Amino acid sequence: MAVRATEITELLKQQIQGFSDEATITNVGQVIAVGDGVATVHGLSQAMQSELVEFTKDGTLGLVLNLEEDAVSVIVMGDYTAIEEGDEVRTTGNVASVPVGDALLGRVVNALGQPLDGKGPIQTSKRRPIERIAPGVIKRQDVDTALQTGIKAIDAMTPIGRGQRQLILGDRQTGKTTITVDTIINQRDSGVKCIYVAIGQKQAQIAQLVRVLEEHGALDHTIVVSASAADPAPLQYIAPFAGTAMGEEFMENGQDALIVYDDLTKHAQAYRQVSLLVRRPPGREAYPGDVFYLHSRLLERSARLHDDLGGGSLTSLPLIETQAGDISAYIPTNVISITDGQIYLETDLFYAGVRPAINTGLSVSRVGGAAQIKAMRQVAGSLRLDMANYRSLAAFAQFGTSDLDPSTRRQIERGQRMTEVLKQPPYSPLPVEEQVAILWAGSAGFLDDIPVDRIREFETQYLDFLRTAHSDLLGRIREEKTLADDLVEALRKVTAEFKATNDYGREAVPQAAD
Asked: Over 50: is that where the pLDDT of 316 sits?
């Protein structure tokens, strides 16, 4: 087939019009050593700290961690076994970043923002660098709006506010993750977007967590960032920073977000591994000297922004795993000093059936009542102190209460009943108005004549009674956020009516008096 001269001319014109004489400069280096996920590269003189570089052999990405005099240390974010000495490495000019925005909600992604759930590519063009300087003091405002967890023991005694950083710590298998999952489930109707960052967990556990969120209708407002135990240490190291970047997108658009880091103990261990591999000097417990800065620069990015900047917030719930209840170890004390309070879960309480197993003496919220609605402050004002006093007196109860003076006996019996009230099964968060109602019934003395072993039964039936027959009272608590005198009187009348129509007398001797 003959080609006409006019066609050739037209093609040449198109090529000439599209020609660009802009020169592109790419910094190219060579691998001089590689091992254990770290490559030492010579020749990348223009590389930046935290810049992404590409191994041209197979397209694997790496992150620049150490800038030395004649070489850079790059942590390989992928399979390093195919990389060999002499391989070419190119700078990309980009610092590590992840996709952000609403398109990630309901998705499971890795630490680079790439989908892991088989639901196709993420449809967003917006990206944010994973490392960023935290908002300054002037950009922040007071934490004074409650973030309801739906867990009575937390919302009453160690409340969490929007923009707060509340540490959850305890030994393994004491219910730390369950508390955070309950909190995420409770945000279904609150408009709070959630990010759950899983660091160093088994993939089966992460899959189970995703299934629980899906079953309770909470996955639609949640992003799950997975850096499992099978992933390289560099991905576990950057995962919390990637999740924080996703949360900052919501915060800076005037929305409220919640991020869970599960857990920062494994994060510190991944960073220790990476640091030792790039030959940074070890310090206490072989952690590098900047392990405090690692977590402080991460957690300081959680804030409640000033109204002039949209008034958005990012609340963080970091988790720390302790060894044999030792909260004075290196990493726990570091993170306790950075956060705005801690919830300490105790193994002995957990195995005694007190769940959530919160130690009220060692748990504290440095925001306090500012992060509670007034109605909750009214019913829970002295609850934390009373429960701490009860725990100190509870040792006497095991020897019987017959020799105790009446006031001490009353305090122990009230404490036993309030302990039962504060127990809560997993994945069943309560609206704040129902929490206020049952806590009010306990503090007003309506539970004092009910056997301890029937308190949970009373609570279930009492709340069902309020929902069905007196939803107007719950609605008033929710709308007014305070217990006015007439509302208290109505609650007193309704509660007395409920007890009169249900057999909740002391027909059995309470457990404490055995």
From this structure: yes
Long-range contacts of 457-464 (CB under 8 A, 24+ apart): 458/504, 459/421, 461/498, 461/502, 462/437, 462/438, 462/495, 462/498, 463/430, 463/434, 463/437, 463/438
CA distance linking residue 481 with residue 374, whole number of Å = 6
pLDDT above 70: residue 495: yes
Which residues fall within 8 angstroms of residue 14, CB to CB, at 6 or more apart? none
Does residue 338 surpass a pLDDT of 60? yes
Q: Would the pLDDT of 329 be above 60?
A: yes
Q: Are 196 and 224 in contact (CB under 8 A)?
A: yes
* Active-site pick, 132, 280, 297, 366: 366
Give, in order, the Cα–Cα distances in Å from 19 to each of 6, 24, 25, 273, 356: 20, 14, 18, 48, 68
326, 366 contact by CB (below 8 A) = no
pLDDT value at residue 52:
92
C-alpha dist (Å) from residue 513 to 309, 353, 457:
58, 20, 20
| Residue 373 vs residues 13, 92, 113, 159, 477: alpha-carbon distances, Å | 72, 50, 37, 10, 10
Q: 158 is written with which tokens?
A: 């160690």
Beta bridge partners of 315: 258
| Residue 385: band (very low, low, confident or very high) from pLDDT cuts 50, 70, 90 | confident
Active site residue 140: no
Q: What are the structure tokens assigned to 431, written together?
A: 């609206």
Q: Using the predicted structure, report yes or no on whether residue 507 has a pLDDT greater than 50.
A: no
The pLDDT-based confidence of 276 (bands split at 50, 70, 90) is: very high
pTM for this entry = 0.90
Q: Among 344, 200, 169, which residue's Cα sits nearest to residue 272? A: 200
**Dihedral sign (CA 57, 60, 61, 63):** negative
Read off the amino acid at residue 29: G
Question: How far from the centroid of its chain's Cα atoms is residue 354's Cα?
Answer: 22
Query: At CB < 8 A and 24+ separation, what contacts does 283-292 make?
Result: 284/330, 285/330, 287/330, 287/331, 291/331, 291/334, 292/334, 292/338
